[in-house]
From TrEMBL, chain B:
This is Transporter. It comes from Cyclopterus lumpus. The lineage of its organism: Eukaryota, Metazoa, Chordata, Craniata, Vertebrata. Its main location: membrane. Pfam families: SNF. One of its GO terms (molecular function) is metal ion binding.
Length: 211, 614
């Protein structure tokens, strides 16, 4: 009896291996670039990591596919290379000889991509599913474009400066005119003292230089 | 600043606060965008260190004599360009008008470039920088096609900044964001000009010195980047063969000429606000030398950064090849690195060359990346922005770079606008009760409205037209007439007396030889050669056409006839005033001669002698 069970087990694993082959129509190739992503902190790829991958994929199938109870055994892996790359297929939990359709696997992977990535500390570029392009993030569009803020600050300053300078020069002119009217009869201290201009049309009533 | 009280009989000309302000303004005017983005490019394509030889020769025999001449006549005759040339000889009055027109036209497109710099500056406050990645396309399935085919910085420049049309005939619409930036640039210019040269002088303390600070910061940063040494070596390795090419000498002479900003009338205006007894010989030599030194100083960080960029591009190219090999042969990740790449390729060639040919390997050549040079707006807005993205802390470097470009351009714009405002003031066409601020404001407003043509889709093509044709041949013609007008019109004897009056010593034989013979000859040769070279090829221009087969290469299209007519107009219009005014004055004098006694002698000219104190 025992040898029958062993034969069946051997046959089923061989059968499973036949399901998974490079270029399988319902399978996907996965490629990991751990050293590129993590450099010194890279972990070694071994059987345990592979187990984690199969478990993560089973989780993805459970959550985002038809809700059936996928198990680690349902994710079959083959053709592992030192790169690290391998092919995988997903078998149905109800019948181990049936492969789950490619599109359902793709959908599940797409939806749980970020979870799979973070399980391995990798990104879309370093954990590739060949044939499943990563969904691009929608751009974060802020309410006010940042450049308008910078523009507003600069132009606010410049506009305020223009107004201040124009107003001050107008005020200065008015003040000069008013002082000029007062001077024609009276004394002035500042103007004659400050100018280095030889100037004859000015009545010079300053107390210091008595004319 | 000292100005006369309202009732004085003699209206005193505004003066610089101190000599340093004046020198700084002249240096700021001369040192402009060209020092940063034209000189390093010329140095690179003309054999690095060897280019310095024709450059120095042109500086000594053409640049500094012209500079000295302009500073001297401005300081002696104490007027803007129109008044000065009317003084020297009524027949040469047209020179001043020509200078004024050229200053106005050049100011239009130059400030548009500053508007572009402002746009990039405002966008440098984002993380990530907008020119570092491609935007997504409409249905979010991939990246924008135009961006993918070219590069993100190309896309940001041509599409998001300029929104460029495929050729100059397609006008496109006015880009509102460009109009806003242009209004900002003119407003900033106006606020610096409000108080005339007193506000300019103060603004210059910042705008003329800040670029040097930023260049030094960039120098220190750039020299520590990987690949900087490659860039510098590439720049300075002299290729002596290049000196045999006449084009090199021509480009050196034109570069010196345009770099010093002579013939715009701005330098004459600035020196007219000087004290009369001022050593303008020393000023001229100082400004000329500092201008050239700045060019050389600026090329060091620029080329270090370009070397860094070439290095980064080379590394990316290699990494792509490495990835292709690793994926194809299923080697372990990071087994092949940039260092042992060649060994691996050799090994693979020996063992499995058949497989190797199936891998799509790109040729990665560092020299080729270093050769990708650019000048002008291409350098600043495409190449440099790409380099900045790769540097850690990119926002800071981008902000610093664009503020530096803005300062450089702003200080040159001061000279342009001064070349327009001072003649207007001197001609006294504006009644006295209109305040100076209003005149400045009106000039800025008119310039802004005219420059709106540069904000439409085809704006960049028009800027190129103006840059190549207004900012070249008319200036050479004006400078030639300036030299001959002073050397022969005013007479070397009178001019020597002027200089003796101002500086206390007469010009020595070197200056006289230059003014009378060497510089006019050089200018004439440059002018003729320039015109001949331009005339030989039918003018065409590079266009950014996404529908082009070889996109992202630019497509060369010939200028349509109506644009050609406008080009001719732009070349001729400023200089036509020179013969027109001469003929007009001749006719006037002939008519008056038949009636009375009239002199074409400038000393009896009644327009301008109010400021002279003999």
């Amino acid at each position: 009896m025992l040898w029958k069970v062993l034969l069946l087990l051997g046959l089923s694993s061989a059968w499973a291996q036949k399901l998974c082959s490079p270029g399988a129509s319902d399978g996907y190739k996965v490629r990991l670039s751990i050293n590129s992503a993590l450099g010194d902190q890279a972990y070694v790829w071994n059987e345990n990591e592979m187990f984690l991958f199969r478990a993560t994929l089973a989780f993805a199938m459970r959550t985002y596919s038809d809700g059936q109870e996928y198990d680690v055994a349902n994710v079959v892996v083959c053709d592992e290379t030192p790169r690290v790359s391998f092919w995988f297929v997903v078998t149905s939990p109800l019948d181990a000889s049936l492969l789950v359709d490619k599109r359902r696997v793709e959908e599940a992977v797409r939806k749980s991509r970020s979870r799979i990535n973070s399980a391995f500390l990798l990104t879309d570029d370093t954990l590739e599913f060949i044939g499943i392009p990563p969904t691009l993030e929608a751009p974060v569009a802020p309410d006010t474009p940042p450049w308008l803020i910078a523009f507003g600050v600069v132009m606010g300053g410049v506009g305020a400066g223009i107004v201040v300078l124009l107003v001050s020069s107008v005020v200065q002119k008015i003040r000069k005119k008013r002082d000029g009217e007062e001077e024609t009869g009276g004394k002035t201290e500042n103007e004659a003292a400050s100018d280095a201009i030889y100037n004859m049309s000015f009545s010079d009533d300053e107390p210091v230089t008595q004319m | 600043i000292e100005t006369a009280p309202p009732d004085s009989g003699v209206e005193e000309r505004p003066k610089w606060d101190n000599k340093f302000q004046y020198l700084l303004t002249c240096i700021g005017f001369a040192v402009g965008l060209g020092n940063v983005w034209r000189f390093p490019y010329l140095c690179q394509i003309y054999g690095g260190g060897a280019f310095l030889i024709p450059y120095m020769i042109a500086l000594v025999f053409e640049g500094i004599p012209l500079l000295y001449l302009e500073l001297a006549i401005g300081q002696r005759l104490r007027m803007g360009s129109i008044g000065v040339w009317n003084s020297i000889s009524p027949l040469l009055g047209g020179l001043g008008i020509a200078s004024m027109l050229v200053s106005f036209l050049v100011g239009l497109f130059y400030n548009t470039i500053l508007a572009w710099v402002l746009w990039y500056f405002f966008h440098s406050f984002q993380n990530p920088l907008p020119w570092s990645q491609c935007p997504l396309n409409d249905n979010l399935t991939g990246f924008n096609v135009e961006c993918v085919k070219s590069t993100p910085s190309n896309y940001f420049w041509y599409r998001e900044t300029l929104n460029i049309t495929p050729d100059i005939e397609t006008n496109g619409s006015l880009n509102w964001w460009m109009v806003v930036c242009l209004a900002s640039a003119w407003s900033i210019l106006y606020i610096c000009f409000i108080k005339g040269i007193s506000s300019i002088g103060k603004a210059m303390y910042v705008t003329a010195t800040f670029p040097y600070l930023v260049l030094t910061i960039f120098l220190i940063r750039a020299l520590t980047l990987p690949g900087a040494a490659d860039g510098l070596l590439y720049l300075f390795t002299p290729d002596w063969e290049v000196l045999k090419n006449p084009q090199v000498w021509l480009d050196a002479a034109t570069q010196i000429f345009f770099s010093l900003s002579v013939a715009f009338g701005g330098l004459i205006a600035f020196s007219s606000y000087n004290a009369e007894k001022n050593n303008c010989e020393r000023d001229a030599v100082l400004v000329g030398v500092i201008n050239s030194a700045t060019s050389i100083y600026a090329s060091i960080p620029i080329f270090s950064i370009l070397g860094f960029k070439a290095n980064t591009a080379y590394n990316s190219c290699m990494k792509e090849n490495i990835l292709a090999l690793t994926n194809h042969f299923e080697f372990s990740d990071q087994n092949i690195t940039v260092d042992n790449y060649d060994h691996w390729v050799e090994y693979l060639n020996r063992t499995s060359s058949g497989e190797l040919t199936r891998v799509d390997l790109k040729p990665c050549d560092l020299q080729e990346f270093l050769d990708q040079s650019a000048s002008g707006t291409g350098l600043a807005f495409i190449v440099f922005t790409e380099a900045v993205v790769e540097m850690p802390g990119s926002q800071i470097w981008a902000i610093l770079f664009f503020i530096m470009l803005f300062s450089l351009g702003l200080s040159s714009m001061f000279g342009q606008i001064e070349g327009v405002l001072t003649p207007i003031n001197d001609l006294k066409v504006v009644p006295k009760w209109i305040p100076h601020e209003l005149v400045t404001g009106v000039v800025c407003l008119i310039s802004f409205l005219t420059a709106l043509i540069f904000t439409q889709g085809s704006g960049n093509y028009w800027v190129e037209v103006f840059n190549s044709y207004v900012g070249s041949v008319p200036l050479l013609i004006i400078a030639f007439f300036e030299l001959t007008g002073v050397a022969y019109g005013r007479g070397m004897k009178t001019f020597s007396e002027d200089i003796y009056f101002m500086t206390g010593k007469r010009p020595n034989i070197f200056w006289k030889a230059c003014w009378m013979v060497i510089s006019p000859l050089m200018l004439l040769v440059v002018l003729v050669a320039y015109v001949v070279i331009q005339a030989q090829k039918h003018p065409s221009y590079p266009t950014w056409n996404p529908a082009y087969d070889l996109f992202p290469k630019t497509e060369d299209k010939p200028y349509p006839d109506w644009v050609f007519a406008i080009i001719i107009l732009l070349c001729v219009l400023p200089v036509i005033s020179i013969p027109l005014v001469a003929i007009y004055r001749l006719i006037c004098s002939r008519i008056k001669k038949s009636g009375g006694h009239v002199d074409l002698n400038p000393n009896s000219n009644d327009q301008i002698n109010s400021n002279h104190r003999f």
